[in-house]
Amino acid sequence: MSDKSPITTHILDLGRGQPAAGVKVTLQQITAEGATQVASGTTDDDGRIMHWFDGPLSPGHYRLSFATGDWYDSQGLDTFYPQVSLDFRVDDTRAHYHVPLLLNQWGYSTYRGS
Q: Please, what's the largest Cα pairwise distance for the chain?
């Protein structure tokens, strides 16, 4: 496997001001026929998933799904969002796509990182 997968993610728990370690994440490619799982993993101690599948990617529609409800439950906390799903497009199959999640119990934000 290369030094990092073509799609990576990072979760910061803004409520604690720390990385969100131990969050289950799945990556799917979405087509007219439905969803196909590309990869699944769990964030490391730094809240990252960097090495979870090899490329290359196909162009198209992808979805990252974060099991935020399970993660907050494991900490004895409530959350408004039991799952966060982020849909995005891959156009340049040679590019790296980093999709961070800024998370707290009652909201989230995301952006395309580097």
A: 41
- Measured CA to CA, the distance from residue 113 to residue 64 in angstroms comes to 14
Domain boundaries, the chain: 7-110
Residue by residue, DSSP assigns 58-89 as PSEEEEEEE-HHHHHHHTT---S-S-EEEEEE
Q: Which fold has domain 7-110?
A: Immunoglobulin-like (2.60.40)
Contact 25, 41 (CB under 8 A): yes
Q: CB–CB of 45/21 below 8 Å? A: yes
pLDDT tens per residue across span 50-81: 999 998 899 999 999 999 999 999 999 999 99
In this prediction the pTM is 0.94
* Residues 6 or more apart whose Cβ sits within 8 Å of residue 17: none
